[in-house]
Amino acid sequence: RQSTVRVRRAPSLPPRPPSPTPIFGLDASGRPVRDMRDFVIPYKPEELLAQPSDNRLWAQDLPPVDEWSQQQAGKALDALVGKLLSSCGREVASEKSFSLLFALLQAWPRLDDATKPRVMDLLVDASRRIVGESEKLKKSTGKQKDKDLVHAVRTAAKVAVFFLKWAAERVLKQSPEAALGVGRGRGKGSRRGAPADAEKEAALEEAKEAQRSLERSRCAVLGELLSLVSKGSMPSVWVSEPAEWQQVAQCVSDAGFLTLDSADALKHRETRHLSLKCIAEPLLQEGHQHSNLLVAAVSKLLYGLRCGEGGAPFVADVLYATHATPLPRLFLVELPTHCNAAELSSQGAFQRSLATFLVAVTEKLPHVVLANISILLPLLDVDCYPLRSAIVESIGVLLSSVGKKLPSGAHCAEPGAEKAVEDNEAMEDGGEGDAAAAEEVPKAGKQDACAHFAIASATKKDLLETLMTRSLDKSVWVRYRVLQTLCNLASRSEAALPRDQWSKVLEISTRRMKDSATMTRKASMQLCRTLIEHHPYGPALQGSGDERTKAQQLLQEVGARMQRLQAEEAAEAEEAIANAEGRASGVADGDEEAGGEGPMTKRRRIKGKTVTAESVQQDLDQALAEDDDGCVGDKRAERERQREALKRMRDCYSQRLRFVELIDSAEARLRGLLASRTITDVTEAISVVVELRLKGVPAATKAFDQVLGLVWSRQASIKDAAVEAFNRMHLEGHDAASAVSSLLEMYEQGCAGGSWTYTHLASVQELIQQCAEKGFIDVKKAIPAFTNALSGSACPMALRALTSLGAADPQALVAQLPKMFELLGPDGSAMGGTTADRLERSRLVCQLLQRLYPCIVNQMSDETMRHIWDFCQHFIAVIVGCFARGDVPAMWFGAAQAAMDLSFELSMAPKASTPLQQCPDKFWEQVLARMLASVLGRSTTTEEAMGPMAPICDGGDECAAPEGSDGADGAGEAVAVLEADKDDQAVSPKVAAPQLGCAVFVAGHLALRMLVYLEALQSALKRKRLAEEDARMEKQRDKNSGGNPTAKKGKKGKKGSKEEEEEETNEATSMGGVGQEERENDAFMELAESGVVFGPKSLLDKIKPLLFACLLDPVMRSDPVLRRLGAISLCKYMTVSKKFCQENLQLLFSILFPKNSAPGALSGAQSADDVGATSKNMGSLLEDTTLRQSLLVAVGDLLFRHPNVVEPWTGKLYATLGSTPGAEGGAGAELRLTALLVLTHLVLNDMLKPRAVLLVRALWLTACVHEPTARVARILFQELSKRSTNVVYNLLPQIIANLPDHQDNSGQLTGGAEERVQFVMQFVEKEKHIEGLIEKLSIRLEQSANATGAKGAAAQSATQQMPSEAAQDLEQDADDSAPPTRAAESVSCLSHALGSMTYTDRCILRLHDVVVVRKALHTAISYHAVTRECLLNIVEKCRKPKAGKGGVDGAAPEGEAPPAAEGAGGRGGGVNAAAMAAIDAIEQTVTGLAQGKDDDPDVPIDDAPAPA
After folding, report:
1. How far is C-alpha 1355 from the chain's CA centre?
2. What's the pTM?
3. d(Cα 1216, Cα 1230) in Å, to the nearest integer?
């Protein structure tokens, strides 16, 4: 590195006598050639300040340029320019000119800005003239003149190279003085600062111009340096002087490397290019020795890798420019010596630069890297993850560069060259007949093949094995890079990733889906998706079933055909032996013809085979026909061809079958990732599942059904991914008509297969709505298409789709209501032929209208209201008609509920004008009364039962229903009839069970809808009252603002005016609004409590005995439909009335949680026979799993509606999460899942406070063998951990302490308490929470250790060491001294909880305070080995160096720096001194207590402050 020194005056020497300048001849132009001193380029310019001993040119008599003015410097430069012009540039080598230029460059930083460009231009012009002078040497004739002229040009060129290199160093370090990027001023003072802004803009333009001028200077200097070496006749000037050429070449190369020290110069394209040429051209010169230049270049290139982010690409470009020289190989050989862990660990920038270089040089020179791959592969063992990642990526670049054109002049050995040579030798041995087949490839073709990169198959296989082995690297980043590289290879072509490797890569991908790092799992799923998308095994994958069958048959057929070929070969061998013995050739020819026809005859026998066998035969025949090369006469060659084709087909189908089996095995992992708490896991798994579905793999059906439910996710990215997946599957690339057909086909497949539930149908409706809102489907065209589909068999599916699209574009659906009424109205042709179809379509249309109504309520026309009301009346008539006929399928209840909901919704519409529309409660009471009358036999015919109903109005007795239709007597008579016939084993023939169930269901749902109706009326009344108050207050404000403002103020002590009294009255009225709202609430609550379920005139009150009879009467509860309907209606009554809930809550929980004793209040048996019969009927009631699941859901509703009433019974509900012996079957698991779903819903929606007992049971269920239950339990903890209230943290000590208490009744589990502790501790991440838990867990740990007792623990330890018989005797003799098992298990759980946390420096000091200072854990440490083991594990983990943040996902790389020295602090290299001393103290305390020693004196620790 040249350093700037101040101007140094030459020492005073005796004056030299003037001597005439000798003339040694004339140059080509006739000018005299003066005598020149020899010049040697120094290592540093400062070396020329001392006079050399051999009279060489040196810097003598330096002029004082620092003291010169600009005019003096200009005058000196003008004189020098004249001399340069007259001497063709050789004047730079004269003594005075040399000293002047030396002084100017030495004082460069202090020169005036106007002088610097002139110096640069002077040097550039001189070098150009020197180069031009070299061109004139060809015209010289005299030998002496040629020699002198060449010497003069060479000396001047050396001086010019020296000065240009020094000037290049100056300009490459120089930067513009003005700052770039000065912005404009804004704000209030922007206009006043306009002149200042103009000045800033002018300064900015001036700085940009200075930058451009600087770049021009750099390019000019580097370009002329390059010309002095390689342009024109300059190479011939240096041929005869190798030593001088070495100096000049080294100087030019050094000038090119100077660019590495300037970041802005590396970004300038022309400067960068010229720098590369300066480095490469000297190495590309032929006829010179390059050893010293190569060594220096390697050293400077290694330095370039440490010069920042721009150094690595520059070094790669240098190797690319010099690929025809030994430099690339020398550099790659030298590079590993600098790649050791000790050197790399302290140079993070060098690690990244090295990784960038390796990838870049592999892309540019793959043949060079492949030739030296044995040198680079050992770098995979270096403990530096950026380096390993770069090697992995370089291997991927090599594999993907096959077929890439190499740089000009580069050649790559053909992979099959050796094989081709062997084939040629074999052909030469074969004689003249094979000479034609051994023709050589044309030279042009060979050269073209060698000019493209190629890898031998064995080398490619080894590189792939190395790459796949690195998928198990310890670093997250390396594993991620491996998977990403494999993904790139799979997406390119089969040439990059051979077919036989696809199964191995897919296996790696499926295994990495379980990686602990999020980014690795993401990359593995991306790789899996790419493999499925570009697989080379045919157009479709049909799954393991069909593929396995077809592959097995094909492999059997291939084996049979290969045996047939062997038999033919053996037969020919026998015939050859027979011919040798003298058999006739005619017989042999006949046998050959027969042998040739045999296989063809057998191949044609496919008539008796199955379709699968035929397809196998056709595939084989087609493969053999495609591989036919036309050799008909040679049967031996034909057999070899067929054998090779069969082998390839066998390998292909074996690999295909393995590929499909791996896809099937990955389906379970994908489904697990769809339920992950990490967003990227879910989104990537969705993309893989969609790709599997697009390829037709049946294994992805269940996974895609799970994707449908993700539309309800709270994460926007997951929801969008689910919508996009649905779009890709069914809508992408379709117009409106084809999209409608695709959706209908999807509905048909999902419903016909039986795998879809109502949850899936609701998810699909939401997905269709989201797709419509995002514009994936044209709603205006799709709605008419779905309406036209109503007349076909796909009517239910079309109605569901219309429900979704109607929410996206309500007006488009409103326009289709007339046509829908024609198809689904009273005389419609689309209602279906069966009762079930009519009821199902009635339900779907009611749900459609109910969802459409809120969207159009404010802009609904009279015609639209009429259509909707006509639909409602029609469907009510359909429902009542089916009831009257006694045709009551299961769909009746859903249709009745939907029709009732629609009628109550329409009652709140502004267009509702008739009493029938405004009073749905009265209307349905009349319907219920007629239903009861029909059931009890009062109406003998359907016409009487469905006669005209009483008018609905707001009057009193005159508007009451006719006698017999109010239902009061009907309900009582129904109970009487059932009591009379209770000895029967079935329902009395006078009362039809299905119709009675319909009446019970309508009663229960009517009670619930009346409650909702009252709440809606209350809300409407409140809105009306608030609107009236707002209008009155607005009117009062207008009135006050219109009067005189001074009139409002009265005199002090006098009576106010009349207006002031009115204002006070209005204010008092408005203040009374709060009390009025409370009175309204009380009135509506009282009405709901006593007017709906209770009351002398309430029909629902009189049906209550009927509800109890459905559950308590032995005859009625034997019917499953009746008891279920009775229980559900009873729960709806309890939801309406708090009083009714209190009275019957015990009955509800008695059904949910029966006792094993004799029947209690539920049975009415009096004798032993009655008890037996009742027990039998009661068993059918209590074994009804569906009933109990429904009641569990109802209990959840009651907890929300009446929390104070149901709260004392929540313990029973929590017990449902447990498991009783013998109840681990399907029914018990489903019941437990329902209870967990209900409790999870209540907790996550803040309707139930999470308690420790609930979370303990849920924690055990995370290890349940029933996967749906375990998944819901995990979701509960994941969602709770996201709450800002820190629910898990607050209850964690109690959860862990009580964990062993509930293990026995948790059912079948996949792990123990330690695994559950580790699972729940992963949700504690904050440092302050860990500190708090250390304190809380320590207190509970010591309490549990004291509960076990030292004596008991010692006895337990001694018992474990005794023989089994002695241990049993000791246990029998000492009952009281047995240790408490539960307390010992709690100690184990709490100890593992302490050991599962991540400890920072502050946490270590807190643990030291607990263990060493306060001795809070001495009892547990002394008597429990598990506590000692966990604490020592903490000590071991804390002593490991921490280079970055770690976590469950492993998003940051592991620490690869060496362990910090003792006492070294900081977060990057490990713990600080105080924490290290605390760790040692904890270890000493634990070790001492384990050996029975109690260290009373406290272990001192350093006073180093803990990190913040």
Report:
1. 53
2. 0.73
3. 11
Q: What 3-state DSSP class applies to 1222?
A: coil
Measure the CA–CA gap between 351 and 346, rounded to whole angstroms: 9
Exposure pattern of 319-346 as b/e (b: 16+ CB <10 Å)? bbbbbebebbebbbeebeeebeeeebbe
Q: What is the DSSP letter of 463?
A: H
Tell me the two tokens of residue 228.
Answer: 């002095």
The rounded distance, in Å, linking the Cα atoms of 1217 and 1240 is 12
**Residue 779 in contact with residue 805, Cβ under 8 Å?**
yes
Contacts 24+ apart (CB under 8 A), 1495-1498: 1498/1412, 1498/1413
Other beta carbons within 10 Å of 805? 24
Angle at 1461 between CA 1460 and CA 1462, to 5 degrees: 120
Measured distance CA(724)–CA(726) in Å, rounded: 5
- Return d(Cα 1150, Cα 47) in angstroms, integer: 107
Task: Read off the pLDDT of residues 1264-1293 as tens digits, 9 standing for 90 and up.
Answer: 888 888 889 988 998 888 888 888 889 999
Give the residue among 1320, 1237, 1230 at the shortest CA–CA distance from 1281.
1320
- In this prediction, residue 436 carries a pLDDT of 40
Find the length of the chain.
Answer: 1508
Q: Give the ranges where 1153-1284 is alpha helix by DSSP (H).
A: 1168-1182, 1185-1201, 1203-1206, 1210-1215, 1226-1244, 1252-1261, 1267-1281
CA atoms of 675 and 689, how far apart (whole Å): 13
Question: Cβ(1324)–Cβ(1296) under 8 Å?
Answer: no
Angle at 1433 between CA 1431 and CA 1439, to 5 degrees: 110
For 947, the 3-state DSSP assignment is coil
Both tokens of 590, joined, read 């006949």
Q: At 1169, list the tokens.
A: 């026979």
Taking residue 1160's Cβ as centre, other Cβ atoms within 10 Å add up to 10
Which residue ranges in the chain fall short of pLDDT 50?
1-28, 33, 178-191, 414, 416-446, 544-545, 584-611, 631, 938-947, 949-989, 1045-1055, 1068-1071, 1157-1179, 1221-1223, 1350-1379, 1443-1469, 1495-1508
Residue 61 token pair? 């008599």
Q: Residue 1204 has which token pair? A: 């104070």
Q: Are 487 and 523 in contact (CB under 8 A)?
A: yes
| Distance between CA atoms of residues 963 and 1467, nearest Å | 88
Residues ≥6 apart with Cβ < 8 Å to 168: 218, 221, 222, 225, 255, 258
Handedness of CA 1023, 1025, 1029, 1035 (dihedral sign): positive
C-alpha span between 327 and 320 (Å, rounded): 10
CA distance 202 to 213: 16
CA nearest to 105, candidates 54, 13, 176, 173: 173
Residue 422 has what pLDDT?
Answer: 43
Amino acid at 434: D
Q: Are 458 and 498 in contact (CB under 8 A)?
A: no
Instruction: Give the span between the Cα atoms of 1488 and 707, in whole angstroms.
Output: 57
How many CB atoms are located within 10 Å of the residue 1495 CB? 15
Per residue in 457-505, pLDDT (tens digit) is 899 999 999 999 999 998 999 999 999 999 999 988 666 788 888 889 9
What is the pLDDT, as a whole number, of residue 180?
A: 43
Q: How far apart are CA 294 and CA 327, in angstroms?
A: 6
- Please tell me the distance from the alpha carbon of residue 88 to that of residue 80, in angstroms, as a whole number: 12
Q: Could you give the 3-state DSSP secondary structure of residue 32?
A: strand
The three-state secondary structure class of 1462 is coil
CA angle 461, 465, 470 (to 5 degrees): 150
Helix (H) or strand (E) holding 544: helix 544-580
**3-state secondary structure at position 56:** coil
